[in-house]
TrEMBL record:
Pathway: Carbohydrate acid metabolism; tartrate degradation; D-glycerate from L-tartrate: step 1/1; Carbohydrate acid metabolism; tartrate degradation; 2-hydroxy-3-oxosuccinate from L-tartrate: step 1/1; Carbohydrate acid metabolism; tartrate degradation; 2-hydroxy-3-oxosuccinate from meso-tartrate: step 1/1. PANTHER family: D-MALATE DEHYDROGENASE [DECARBOXYLATING]. Has multiple catalytic activities. Apart from catalyzing the oxidation of (+)-tartrate to oxaloglycolate, also converts meso-tartrate to D-glycerate and catalyzes the oxidative decarboxylation of D-malate to pyruvate. The lineage of its organism: Bacteria, Pseudomonadati, Pseudomonadota, Alphaproteobacteria, Hyphomicrobiales. It catalyses: (2R,3S)-tartrate + NAD(+) = 2-hydroxy-3-oxosuccinate + NADH + H(+); (2R,3R)-tartrate + H(+) = (R)-glycerate + CO2; tartrate + NAD(+) = 2-hydroxy-3-oxosuccinate + NADH + H(+); (2R,3R)-tartrate + NAD(+) = 2-hydroxy-3-oxosuccinate + NADH + H(+). It comes from Pseudorhodoplanes sinuspersici. One of its GO terms (molecular function) is NAD binding. This is D-malate dehydrogenase [decarboxylating]. Coiled coil: none annotated. Keywords: Manganese, Metal-binding, NAD, Oxidoreductase. SUPFAM superfamilies: Isocitrate/Isopropylmalate dehydrogenase-like.
Length: 357
């Protein structure tokens, strides 16, 4: 029996609701498969922990995660704590020391889901966005001087290192090569930002020489929003900086039907440290505790985690089960225009996993 050690961090808001649903579904996957078991350890880190202890997670928290095979993460953010405190105190405090430098976000329109794009029925939109996850605009470099005084100054410096850019662009080319269309779009803003972004363009051209079988092009991020909306079928794999891809992937999630569906993986591709898997959405205070959070994002996230753990048969089975359930409008949560509950969707997916070949 293969055993995988999972660290579960539900976090804040609907995070614990969708992670608990995801763990139930993962349990059904393991039982159905029969070849592996998940050993889950729960961590109660997040905003409630902060209110008790003044920190989002204990000192050395990220190091406690090193012995796990994967991290399954909900969301972080509370209405009464500033977002930069919660984000930097937990999510980034895990991603950065564990060097999860590749953030990977598949986007597809699942069966039964309607895209807000009038001309898109499904197959026209099938992307993977690769986000640089370790530096750039979110490197944390900068400061505030003369705080609160009339002469106050604040800076955020985007840090782009040659090794950091090479590794993410190489990862994106490899991913593009593994997909049928072998098509990569490199997104920058090198007309206005003439240092770091021009280095991205230069490095993309250098790395491209290692991948003669991959077709690639460049886009400015502003024009990219139009191309995603007007010509989604011309895109496949996309790579962009931490900030640009953060924004583009929210747009992608919306175009694919709902933020509640979209998954993401924070990968250390060399597997020197555990990777972290989370739905894209945040803690959604507006619906917390109502039992109506869409768990599909956390299920699709679980598919990515199973793939990373090498459980490809179980991953494929879970994805099929999810698609079977999204195809049925009576199992849509309110964000998709339905009135199903988290529990109903979860139970339906568990049944579909059990029934799947
Ligand atoms: P959000 O993603 O929490 O919510 C945006 C909208 O989408 C809300 O109307 C929400 O109800 C809806 N929504 C999100 N996930 C859903 C789901 N699974 N099912 C149904 N509806 C869903 O983003 P928002 O409101 O900007 O941020 C709320 C908090 O979450 C903030 O503190 C923010 O900093 C944090 N956040 C955390 C993230 C993370 O942990 N990775 C990512 C984004 C935001
Ligand atoms: Mg975001």
């Amino acid at each position: 029996m293969r055993k995988h050690k999972i660290a579960a961090i539900g976090g804040d808001g609907i995070g614990p609701e969708v992670i608990s649903a995801g763990l139930d579904v993962l349990d059904a996957c393991a039982k159905r498969d029969g070849g592996f078991a998940l050993e889950v350890t729960h961590f109660d880190w997040g905003s409630d922990y902060y209110k008790k202890h003044g920190v989002m997670m204990p000192d050395g928290g990220a190091d406690k995660l090193r012995s796990f095979d994967a991290i399954y993460f909900g969301a972080v953010g509370a209405p009464d704590i500033p977002d930069h405190v919660t984000l930097w105190g937990l999510r980034l405090a895990i991603c950065q020391p564990l060097d999860q430098y590749a953030n990977v976000r598949p986007t597809r329109i699942l069966p039964g889901i309607t895209s807000p794009l009038r001309h898109v029925t499904g197959p026209e939109l099938d992307w993977v966005i690769v986000r640089e996850n370790s530096e750039g605009e979110y490197a944390g470099v900068g400061g505030r001087v003369h705080k609160g005084l009339p002469e106050e100054v604040a800076t955020d410096v985007a840090m782009f290192t040659r090794p950091g850019v090479i590794r993410i662009i190489r990862y994106a080319f490899e991913l593009a090569r593994s997909r049928p269309r072998k098509l990569l779009t490199v997104v920058t803003k090198s007309n206005a930002q003439r240092h770091g972004m021009v280095m991205w363009d230069d490095i993309a051209a250098e790395v491209a020489r290692e991948f003669p079988d991959v077709t690639w092009d460049k886009m400015l991020v502003d024009a990219m929003t139009m191309r995603m909306t007007l010509r989604p079928q011309t895109l496949d794999t996309i790579v962009a900086t931490n900030l640009h891809a953060d924004i583009l992937s929210d747009l992608a999630a919306a175009l694919a039907g709902s933020l509640g569906i979209a998954p993401t993986a924070n990968l250390n591709p060399e597997r020197k440290t555990p990777s972290m898997f989370e739905p894209i959405h945040g803690s959604a205070f507006d619906i917390t505790g109502k039992g109506i959070a869409n768990p599909v994002g956390s299920f699709w996230t679980a598919v990515m985690m199973l793939e990373h753990l090498g459980e490809n048969a179980a991953a494929a089975r879970l994805m099929k089960a999810v698609e079977r359930v999204t195809a049925d409008p009576s199992l849509h949560t309110p964000d998709l225009g339905g009135n199903a509950t988290t529990k109903q969707v979860t139970e339906a997916v568990m049944r579909a996993v059990e029934a799947e070949n």
